Amino acid sequence: MHVQVLLFGILKDWLGASALAIELRPGASVGELLEHVSNALPANLPALATSGIAVSVNAEFANTAHILHEGDEVGLLPPVSGGAPDRDEETPTDAIALTQHPIDTEKLLAAAKHGEDGAVVVFDGIVRNNTRGRQTLHLDYEAYEEMAARQMHQLACEARERFGVRHITLVHRLGRLQVGETSVLIVVASAHRGAAFEASRWLIDTLKKTVPIWKKETFVDGVVWAAGEPFPAELALSPPEAAREA
Asked: What's the predicted TM-score (pTM) here?
């Protein structure tokens, strides 16, 4: 049985590839796959079982007991910097996107406002010029795009249901970003300010823990994959390790 393994963030650097084709016995589990991949790691690197990863199968989170099938696409997901609903069932006014282009905050904010709204809350995450006392030159964001888009749509649906807000804009930039550029924009429109504030905070906190987007930080004195937020306990296979210098 053959499966395709996709690697992201620091895992891609550790194994020196963005994808692996792996042959397993028929009926093998995700746990067996992880053992197979861990055995391929150089001796001076930690086993995948201790790197705090989560796993997806065909762009959906999976646990170690999940049984794999011929042609499955398995994502090995380090902690992010940071079943999906059918898109046809979502409110069409939500604006959810991953983009390689600069985010136009003013345009998206204007598009989010409607006459019935009493409040619009904006979270504009920007690239700062330092992290942990080190001068930042630029950031590079990458994502498991199919899965990230699904997760972002799911978050928007859940936020509208949980907080009763009318509209959500959720846009994340990918690729290289310079200091001062917007990396993530969240706009929440609602009849009441309390719900808009709560939904905005919940969206950014949850996105940073569950959506497969990773950040590589380039400083004047080195490069490192950001350690990121740990996956929730029900998704992570084990506690995360600290980031490693590239």
From this structure: 0.70
